[in-house]
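Per reviewer request, we include the raw input and output of the structure prediction for the construct analysed in the revised manuscript.
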Amino acid sequence: MSSTISSSGSFDTVYAQLLTLRAPLLPPGKSTDPKLTDKISSLYIHPTLEAAFHLLNCDLPSAHFLVRHMQAAPMYEAMYLHGILHRIEGDYDNARAWYGNVADTEVFKKNWSSKEKGLEFIGKVEALNKKREGKREALEKESVEEIKNVIDHCVEKFGSGQMQDASVAWVQPEEAHRKMGQEMVSGGKGFRDF
């Protein structure tokens, strides 16, 4: 799999290249192709699309930075991507919580007929990661399809053109969520150590 992006670096070119990479399914440890991080960021696309592209590259820190700015209604697409991110990194309980938060949204329903189906997928990925049960190739395909469906939804809703000021997409979480997030980052109550 080559990871060279043409000098044009267009949305379609970068997206096509990302789809040639190994599917984001299990905790990657690092991005698949660190050189793509700048290419993705330089597209200046809607931050939900940028986050999804970073997920396809297994660049979880870049994706997480973006979705944390959009982790409240009405940015259900980013909330869903937040759940996908946690599924990929192996924080399955957090992923289940995010999937549950968006289970009744249009973007979630493009992938899953019910909340239970989405949670079942997380369970299958968890079984593969923890017990080596399941068929990795089939789950990788399903993981990519899930992200592609979110991307298609976001392109329909936001377009794939440049967005000079991404801050217009940021939302402020409710106070309880803001405090919870702060404790996760600086209060030692989170899954990750930064």
